Amino acid sequence: MYCVKKITEDITWIGSSDRKLPFFEGVYPAREGVSYNSYFVDDSKTVVIDTVDKSVSGMFFENLKYMLKGRPLDYVIVTHMEPDHSATLGELVLRYPEVKVVCNQKTVNMIKQFFDFDIEERAVLMNENDKFSSGSHEFTFINAPMVHWPEVMMAYDSTDKILFSADAFGSFGAIDGSIFADSVDYEKDYLDEARRYYTNIVGKYGAQVQMALKKASSLDISMICPLHGLVWRKDLDKILTSYDKWSRYEAEEKGVAVLMGSIYGNSSAAADIIAGKIAEKGLPVKILDMSVRHFSEAVSLAFKYDRIVFVSPTTDGEIFEPMAETVKAIASRNLQNRKIAIVENGTWAPVSGKNIREMLSGLKNTEIVENTISIRSSLKEDAETLADSLVSAICD
Ligand SMILES: Cc1cc2nc3c(=O)[nH]c(=O)nc-3n(C[C@H](O)[C@H](O)[C@H](O)COP(=O)(O)O)c2cc1C
Ligand SMILES: [Fe+2]
Ligand SMILES: [Fe+2]
Q1: Which of 139, 148, 227, 254 fits 202 for a cystine, CB–CB 3.0-4.6 Å?
Q2: CA 381 to chain CA centroid, nearest Å
Q3: Does 233 lie in the same domain as 147?
């Protein structure tokens, strides 16, 4: 069975959604599913823009066959080699032996590493700003290195003013019905997953995303077609503004992410007291218990809000493991421009605070409140005073 979605008169989405994937890239829970977008251009020449992950290749090939209606497939544009979009390339070449692969030299080199088919004889090499015509559509290629593989090249269709943006502007979340962002409740149903996708997968490469955005700003874009998630044909500013903020490490809003771990419940109680006082100050606050949350949720929340409170017990002379993973994930995403406070806990020799501080010491333009609150097992009569001092240090 096929299931295609019309994007324009002669461009059609031929991708598919995976709603059973436990972990995207082997690590990110994909509870809302994930879509792998592939686009078919019905022109004098037939063109596929990127293929899909192996898990949805069945639907993809049905869709492609349906769109070709017996015509040969002339070209496949490969914006990058990452297997979530290119794993199906080998089978595509077997099914459509005449297909030429439009990509850059770096991608050719990677294709050789992943596949055995002869790429040299079928590669149509493109460099930045080169143009490729399929008849009425003319594509210009734009390098977007590290967004998020080194060889990424976006394709701009100057005929329809469409930016095929590779993974940029993508999102977790399956396509349920409409593929257009303006036809769904984006803020309610997709924004959190778009942020979790961006901050975790591309978050580290803010500078490179800024470069890509700069290049995009010189183009007249009426539609953005990414490789995951929704297609943008209205209110493009919405997603462009989000990407601009996220890649400049600027918070979306004032608020506090309370990222905590607890074994026996005392650090958890401290987090509750602190969050209550933050709320009284009128700031949005959200507690994530990292024993049951995935670190990618914490990364996402840390990008959303401008303040973070870390609350962690000490275990075996180190940071409690779920918290250690969380702190490492945030530090490795290069987060900047934040205010941070730390609460540690330990019964005989608390060190988690010192260790967290060290791990975050490299974050640019980030203030870590000087006094770590150090709890010996549980908060006592001084609970209110300690919590008040931390809350005023982080909120005022
Ligand atoms: C496996 C394990 C190792 C621990 N190692 C340390 C430690 O090295 N230093 C310390 O001060 N406390 C250590 N503790 C004690 C806890 O950090 C301490 O009881 C803390 O108050 C727990 O906070 P909670 O009630 O939020 O779980 C350890 C506890 C466990 C379960
Ligand atoms: Fe990718
Ligand atoms: Fe991808």
Answers
A1: 148
A2: 44
A3: yes
In testing the pocket of ligand 1, which one of 266, 311, 347, 348 has its CB within 8 Å of the most ligand atoms?
347
Return the ligand number nearest the Cα of 170.
Answer: 3
First to last CA, the chain: 59
Among candidate residues 247, 282, 310, the one where a domain is terminated: 247
Say yes or no to pLDDT of 240 above 90. Answer: yes
One-letter amino acid of 335: L
Given 247, 272, 294, which residue is the final one in a domain?
A: 247
Domain count, the chain: 2
CA angle in degrees (0–180, nearest 5) for 231-94-172: 25
Does 176 have pLDDT greater than 90?
Answer: yes
Mean per-residue pLDDT, 148-172: 97
**Burial class of 317 by CB neighbour count within 10 A (0 to 12, 13 to 18, 19+):** exposed
Alpha-carbon gap, residue 44 to 152, rounded angstroms: 26
- Specify whether 191 is located in the same domain as 316: no
Asked whether residue 156 falls in the same domain as residue 303, the answer is no
d(CA 368, CA 385): 19
317 CA: nearest ligand 1 atom: 8
- Say which CATH number the domain at 197 has: 3.60.15.10
Pocket mutation for ligand 1, best pick of 258, 323, 345, 374 (most atoms within 8 Å of C-beta): 345
Q: Say which amino acid occupies 305.
A: Y
Residue 315 Cα, ligand 1 centroid: separation in angstroms?
A: 5
Cis previous bond, 148, omega within 30 = yes
- Model pLDDT, residue 396: 87
Provide CB contacts within 8 A for 84, sequence distance 6+: 24, 25, 36, 52, 53, 227
Domain range for 230 is 5-247
Check which CATH number belongs to the domain holding 390 and give it: 3.40.50.360
